Amino acid sequence: MSQEAFPSDAHDERRHEGITGVIDIGSNSVRLLVCDIKDGKATPLYSDLITCRLLSGISQGVLAPESIERTVNAVKRLIADARRNGAEVIHGFGTCAMREGVNSSIIVEQARSMGVEIEVLSGEDEALMAYIGASKGGKCGIIDIGGGSTELIIGENGAVKYRASAPVGAVRLYESFASRELRETVERARDMLARAWQTVSPEENPEWTGVGGTITTLAALSLELTAYSPERVCGYALSRDEAWDWLEKLYGMSVERRAALPGMKKNRADIIPFGTAILCAFFELSNAKSVSVTENDNMIGYLKLKYNLI
Q1: Using one digit for the tens of pLDDT, what is the confidence trace for 67-115?
Q2: What is the pLDDT of residues 197-245, one digit of tens each?
Q3: Pick from 167, 276, 260, 165: which is nearest to 217 by CA?
Q4: Which residues contact 111 (CB under 8 A, 6 or more apart)?
Q5: Phi then psi for 180, rounded to 5 degrees?
Q6: Contact residues for 254 (Cβ-Cβ < 8 A; gap 6+)
Q7: How far apart are CA 248 and CA 239, in angstroms?
Q8: Can you tell me the distance from the alpha carbon of 203 to that of 205, in angstroms, rounded to the nearest whole number?
């Protein structure tokens, strides 16, 4: 999806102002963001998340019926939440599990029956959304660790220069490597990231920003937040050494012990070591010493591009 991808008759839509919702159907969770679009800006008003693990149980490209059912129920609830919070228009998009699942059209059709169209993004378009949402200007790199895939992007002053998507995410790695040793898990993640890294790794070395539940959770763990605070998490510099320290700690803990840690979201306690392994693999591939954490991700990026707010 690019600005040119929108049809010419979308011009009036781009002048839209008002309370608008966007739903992201991801591999691990379904998320909602409601924003007030006004004067060329999208101001967040409300957000919510339901963990559905859509990618869990996928077999030969077929999404498991129970995963689809959980996801459809979550979409239904979040559409109702969006409308209760004043959303006059609701958009939706799907990422890795939706594009891989040959039967993901079931979810698209169910959402359409509720009045919401779901656009299934390619890996490259998912990367573009993350960059537009997270970029702070200047030269920057973005790493977006999801449930089924990880996106890497390098851009400058709002323009993407390189972008790629790798088929490795926290849920996917957890389901295939949960019984492996730590070092083997990191090597697997690095191997799966390598091709994407080759696409986005010119000689320049930008400042990196990290988005996604793995990275925000690691920041919350480091800050020992008993109550999650976006204001404290955003801008936190998560270092290479910190990521490795957390990986070693988390990998050796039971799920119950992880869930009890200050800053841990209980529905992420099982997969957090695997998302962290992906981040550590990224640090091994790159010269980055840290990533700056942000909650501005592909949902805000989608709205910015949809309504030409960039």
Answers
A1: 999 999 999 999 999 999 999 999 999 999 999 999 999 999 999 999 9
A2: 999 986 667 899 999 999 999 999 999 999 999 999 999 999 999 999 9
A3: 276
A4: 23, 72, 75, 79, 92, 117, 118
A5: -90, 165
A6: none
A7: 14
A8: 6
Q: What is the DSSP string of the chain?
A: --GGGS-GGGHHHHT--EEEEEEEE-SSEEEEEEEEEETTEEEEEEEEEEE--TTTT-BTTBPPHHHHHHHHHHHHHHHHHHHHTT-SEEEEEE-HHHHH-TTTHHHHHHHHHTT--EEEPPHHHHHHHHHHHH--SSEEEEEEE-SS-EEEEEEETTEEEEEEEES--HHHHHHHHTTS-HHHHHHHHHHHHHHHHHHH--S---EEEEESHHHHHHHHHHHT-SS--HHHHTT-EEEHHHHHHHHHHHHTS-HHHHHTSTT--GGGTTTHHHHHHHHHHHHHHS--SEEEE-S--HHHHHHHHHTT--
> Does the pLDDT of residue 2 top 80, yes or no?
no
Buried b / exposed e over 16-32, threshold 16 CB at 10 Å, is eeebbbbbbbbbbbbbb
**Can you tell me the distance from the alpha carbon of 15 to that of 37, in angstroms, rounded to the nearest whole number?**
10
Q: How far apart are CA 49 and CA 31, in angstroms?
A: 4
pLDDT digits (tens, 9 = 90+) for 109-155: 999 999 999 999 999 999 999 999 999 888 899 999 999 999 999 99
d(CA 259, CA 255): 6
Question: Chain-centre distance of CA 143, in angstroms?
Answer: 9
CA 19 to chain centre: 22
